[in-house]
Specification:
Elements (H helix, E strand, L loop, with lengths): L2 E5 L1 H5 L18 H4 L2 H6 L1 H17 L4 H15 L5 E5 L5 H4 L5 E3 L6 E3 L6 E3 L10
Parallel strand pairs: 1-2, 2-3
Antiparallel strand pairs: 4-5
C-alpha cells in the first residue's frame, strides 16, 4: 500500500513560523504584488530580497516539532517494513521536514534555501542573504 501525506502551514506554525494567510499571517503586512511576483522583483529587488531574507532567518531559527519528527519516523518505518511507497508533499517553504530526516519529499512552493538565476538558469542551494547584483 502506498501513502501520500500533505502538510501545510499548520505543521510549521507549531514551530512558531508565521503562516502566510492566517489572522497574524505574513500577507497582513505586505501586498503579494509587492514582494512575490516577477514584476515586484524587477521594480524593487531590495524589498523582495529583504522579505525573503527575513523568512529565511525565521525558518533557520525554528526547530522541528513533534509532528515533523513523527512524519520522519513514519517514513522510515514505512520503508523499512516494505509497506509500499511513501511520499510527503508540503506546501511549506521551510526545511523542517528535511531536518528531521524526511527524504521522500516534494515542496509544492519551493524552498527558502534554494535559488534560481533568471539570467543564466543556475539553480541550487542558497543559504546566505539574497543580494541584488547591479548590471
Amino acid at each position: 500500500m502506498n501513502i501520500v501525506i500533505l502538510t501545510g502551514a499548520g505543521i510549521s506554525a507549531e514551530s512558531r513560523l508565521a503562516t502566510f494567510t492566517g489572522t497574524d499571517g505574513l500577507w497582513n503586512g505586505y501586498r503579494i504584488e509587492d514582494v512575490c511576483t516577477p514584476d515586484a522583483l524587477e521594480c524593487n529587488p531590495d524589498a523582495v530580497c529583504a522579505f525573503y531574507d527575513e523568512r529565511k532567518s525565521e525558518a533557520a531559527s525554528a526547530e522541528p516539532n513533534p509532528a515533523h519528527i513523527a512524519l520522519a519516523k513514519l517514513e522510515r518505518h514505512w520503508q523499512e517494513t516494505g509497506k509500499g511507497e511513501f511520499l510527503l508533499v508540503t506546501q511549506n517553504v521551510d526545511d523542517l521536514h528535511e531536518r528531521t530526516g524526511s527524504k521522500s519529499l516534494v515542496h509544492m512552493h519551493g524552498l527558502l534555501n534554494s535559488a534560481f538565476c533568471m539570467e543564466c538558469g543556475w539553480q541550487g542551494p542558497r543559504h546566505g542573504l539574497l543580494i541584488v547584483v547591479e548590471k
